[in-house]
UniProtKB/TrEMBL annotation:
<dbReference type="InterPro" id="IPR036322">
    <property type="entry name" value="WD40_repeat_dom_sf"/>
</dbReference>
<feature type="repeat" description="WD">
    <location>
        <begin position="100"/>
        <end position="142"/>
    </location>
</feature>
<keyword id="KW-0472">Membrane</keyword>
<keyword id="KW-0333">Golgi apparatus</keyword>
<dbReference type="InterPro" id="IPR050844">
    <property type="entry name" value="Coatomer_complex_subunit"/>
</dbReference>
<comment type="function">
    <text>The coatomer is a cytosolic protein complex that binds to dilysine motifs and reversibly associates with Golgi non-clathrin-coated vesicles, which further mediate biosynthetic protein transport from the ER, via the Golgi up to the trans Golgi network. Coatomer complex is required for budding from Golgi membranes, and is essential for the retrograde Golgi-to-ER transport of dilysine-tagged proteins.</text>
</comment>
<keyword id="KW-0653">Protein transport</keyword>
<dbReference type="InterPro" id="IPR006692">
    <property type="entry name" value="Beta-prop_COPA/B_2nd"/>
</dbReference>
<keyword id="KW-0963">Cytoplasm</keyword>
<dbReference type="Pfam" id="PF00400">
    <property type="entry name" value="WD40"/>
</dbReference>
<dbReference type="GO" id="GO:0030126">
    <property type="term" value="C:COPI vesicle coat"/>
</dbReference>
<keyword id="KW-0968">Cytoplasmic vesicle</keyword>
<protein>
    <recommendedName>
        <fullName>Beta'-coat protein</fullName>
    </recommendedName>
</protein>
<keyword id="KW-0931">ER-Golgi transport</keyword>
<feature type="domain" description="COPA/B TPR">
    <location>
        <begin position="556"/>
        <end position="699"/>
    </location>
</feature>
<dbReference type="GO" id="GO:0006886">
    <property type="term" value="P:intracellular protein transport"/>
</dbReference>
<dbReference type="InterPro" id="IPR001680">
    <property type="entry name" value="WD40_rpt"/>
</dbReference>
Length: 699
């Protein structure tokens, strides 16, 4: 299926709508009503104009109803019809310059051929379709096949197929090849007269509307029914799609509707050097981050990228994915895949597949041929075909080949398709880190971070110990489960960066989640370029934005997670001062307080750490700098617990903690201290302490 996401954008109630049109640049829909009025709706603001009645020129053209008008795309001509079709030239005072005769019943619709402006086709209640040439009053040829009157007709505008589509009162839709004059396909499904048909000018779909109240969307190459829309507005009379737009206007007995057809997830991929390829409908386009030069980039802002057209794809791309080294890109859609060279978009290999995944090794990939067969290819040659034990409902690429079935997830070795481990989980996505040591398995509710223990797997396979029918028991070690839904993700070192279902851009490292940004819409991660210290994301409208994320911080955190403090110390100087405290908090959470104290630049944080570590000297220094009573009190407490009474006394003094000083002085039997305290307390008006100290001295 096309996975089209259909959303209703506007519902406009009115009298019966007989024709709708979308403005090519403004967000306007024009609806002409059966009662003679014309309305214009703004589908962004949902505001309507008052009904218009236009009259620029009026003339009597036919003796019966006029059912359709067609305007020539370039010449000053319009065609009108009852049983005859008449051509009017508005530059010659609207004179009738030609009459086309041949139909034996009312003509319902006329359309010009977008690929040949001198040709037009007509649909008639005499059950035929006729194709005409301007300049010749009799039809060029007639297409027969419908059993009842034909109401509507449209030309296919894309590609090279010489096709016409028609809909009739026999409830059928027919696709015709007008070169060899045969009916190529009949679409059955509507339960009543078909009133409108449309080859969408951009999307690979056919839209048909019927008096049964439904609009049906069919795939224009496979002719499969993709969806049936019923908005309960009674009979459907007209449909209009627009080039360059995903909006489709529909006219009904009770008003009009605009729907938006889109893809949830854009077909888009970036290689490690910053070249981005995406599919805009069937056209492949490329943009290069490097070509932006040194332009100032702000977080979350749309990047000013120059877009290059790469040509069109033979299938309608639903996904697009670079291989790990970026030399190839695979396009998948409609049960087919094509592997292209990423530079010139030359096809390298193709075939049928339900799904396609790249291996970690750039020369390998797997396809899911059916719900039971998976095939592995190396250097574009089939290496192995196998039937996973419980079937294959989905496959996942990366370090190991993942296969999903009703029974859960099974990981296989790419080389020999041996089962490594079966896990009871229903994954949505799987993301492997570059080293193959960590993997994120994302489900509908949460995600798990697992460590893959390749040495244990090798040892078990060698000795055959710890191997069950579910594979190697110790193959994975759970590092954490996080109750968040991952939409897209990628690894940089041991840091897992992801977008969540609530549009947050986060990363996970060592049990901690850091939020990089709150996104204002759904975004899809494309990749991370360490050289730029930036993360790149795309949205449904193919805009690219970026967010700053320092590679030094990620590297440092990765080194810490690997307990590689030699590496961490090497990276540290490259971390800017303002990021040090964040890193220090991370170290503290990992239990490395000493290192955190060394790294942190925030006095508060450092003081906290110094206290926890019992570092009296450092804490003292920080208390002096901070001049805060609270700090002196905390430090006094620590000093007392360490029997550093001299220091404690000084701290209590700074803290003006007379109660504390009294306790210290009396407990240590220090008469001189009591005397000094009495004077100080009296001076500061601390009468209780002053009284007690004088009393104790017998004064
Ligand atoms: C036709 O219908 C529209 C909306 O339903 C209404 O606003 C308009 O007044 C009607 N026009 C006539 C001529 O009846
Ligand atoms: C259709 O009309 C064109 C132009 O008049 C003519 O060249 C062509 O031969 C005609 N084809 C048929 C099948 O009549
Ligand atoms: C007419 O052309 C279509 C392809 O457009 C082909 O499928 C069909 O078989 C052809 N029919 C005849 C009778 O040549
Ligand atoms: C379908 O068209 C026929 C004429 O072919 C007409 O009699 C019938 O009323 C139409 N159906 C509906 C539901 O209007
Ligand atoms: C691949 O390219 C060849 C030659 O350029 C072409 O004939 C073929 O149709 C292409 N196939 C696909 C599936 O793109």
């Amino acid at each position: 299926p096309l996975r089209l996401d259909i959303k209703r954008k506007l519902t406009a109630r009115s009298d019966r709508v007989k024709s709708v049109d979308l403005h090519p640049s403004e967000p306007w829909m024009l609806a002409s009503l059966y009662n003679g009025s014309v309305c214009v709706w703004n589908h962004e603001t949902q505001v309507t104009s008052r009904p218009y009645v236009f009259q620029l020129h009026m003339f009597e053209a036919h003796s019966d109803y006029i059912r359709c008008i067609a305007v020539h795309p370039t010449q000053p001509y319009i065609l009108t019809n009852d049983m005859l079709i008449k051509l009017w030239d508005w530059e010659k005072k609207w004179s009738c310059s030609q009459v086309f005769e041949g139909h034996t019943h009312y003509v319902m619709q006329i359309v010009f051929n977008p690929k040949d402006n001198n040709q037009f086709a007509s649909a008639s209640l005499d059950r035929t379709i006729k194709v005409w040439q301007l300049g010749s009053s009799s039809p060029n040829f007639t297409l027969e096949g419908h059993d009842k009157g034909v109401n509507c007709i449209d030309y296919y505008s894309g590609g090279d197929k010489p096709y016409l589509i028609s809909g009739a009162d026999d409830r059928l839709v027919k696709i015709w090849d007008y070169q060899n004059k045969t009916c190529v396909q009949t679409l059955e499904g509507h339960a009543q007269n078909v009133s409108c048909v449309n080859f969408h000018p951009e999307l690979p779909i056919i839209i048909t509307g019927s008096e049964d109240g439904t609009v049906r969307i069919w795939h224009s190459s496979t002719y499969r029914l993709e969806s049936t829309l019923n908005y309960g507005m009674e009979r459907v009379w007209c449909v209009c799609g627009l080039r360059g737009s995903n909006s489709v206007a529909l006219g009904y007995d009770e008003g009009s509707i605009i729907i938006k057809l889109g893809r949830e997830e854009p077909a888009m991929s970036m290689d490690t050097s910053g070249k981005i390829i995406w599919a805009k409908h069937s056209e492949i386009q490329q943009a290069n981050l490097k070509a932006m030069g040194d332009a100032e980039i702000k977080d979350g802002e749309r990047l000013p990228l120059a877009v290059k057209d790469m040509g069109s794809c033979e299938i309608y791309p639903q996904t697009l994915q670079h291989n790990p080294n970026g030399r190839f890109v695979v396009v998948c859609g409609d049960g087919e895949y094509i592997i292209y060279t990423a530079m010139a978009l030359r096809n390298k290999s193709f075939g049928s597949a339900q799904e396609f995944v790249w291996a970690h090794d750039s020369s390998e990939y797997a396809i899911r041929e059916s719900s039971s067969v998976v095939k592995i290819f190396k250097n574009f040659k089939e290496k192995k075909s196998f039937k996973p034990d419980f079937g294959a409902e989905g496959i996942y690429g990366g370090f190991l080949l993942g296969v999903r079935s009703v029974n859960g997830l099974a990981f296989y070795d790419w080389d020999n398709t041996e089962l490594i481990r079966r896990i009871e989980i229903q994954p949505k996505h799987i993301f492997w880190s570059d080293s193959g040591e960590l993997v994120c398995i994302a489900t509908e509710e949460s995600f798990f971070i697992l460590r893959y223990l390749s040495e244990k797997v090798a040892a078990s396979q060698e000795s055959n110990e710890g191997v069950t029918e579910d594979g190697v028991e110790d193959a994975f070690e759970v590092q954490g489960e996080i109750q968040e839904v991952v939409k897209t993700g990628l690894w940089v070192g041991d840091c897992f960066i992801y977008t969540s279902s609530v549009n947050r851009l986060n990363y996970f490292v060592g049990g901690e989640i850091v939020t990089i940004a709150h996104l204002d819409r759904t975004m899809y991660l494309l990749g991370y370029i360490p050289k730029d210290d930036r993360l790149y994301l795309g949205d449904k409208e193919l805009n690219i934005v970026s967010y700053s994320l320092l590679v030094s911080v990620l590297e440092y955190q990765t080194a810490v997670m690997r307990r590689d403090f030699g590496m961490a110390d090497k990276v540290l100087p490259t971390i800017p001062k303002e990021q040090r405290t964040r890193v220090a908090h991370f170290l503290e959470k990992q239990g490395f307080k000493q290192q955190a104290l060394a790294v942190s630049t925030d006095p508060e944080h450092r003081f906290e750490l110094a206290l926890q570590l019992g570092e009296l000297k450092i804490a003292y220094q920080l208390a002096v700098e901070a001049e805060s009573e609270q700090k002196w009190k905390q430090l006094a407490e620590l000093a007392i617990s360490k029997c550093q009474f001299g220091l404690a006394q000084e701290c209590l003094h700074h803290a003006q903690d007379y109660g504390g000083l009294l306790l210290l002085a009396t407990a240590s039997g220090n008469a001189a201290m009591v005397a000094k305290l009495a004077e100080g307390a009296e001076r500061d008006g601390k009468n209780n302490v002053a009284f007690m100290t004088y009393f104790l001295q017998g004064k």
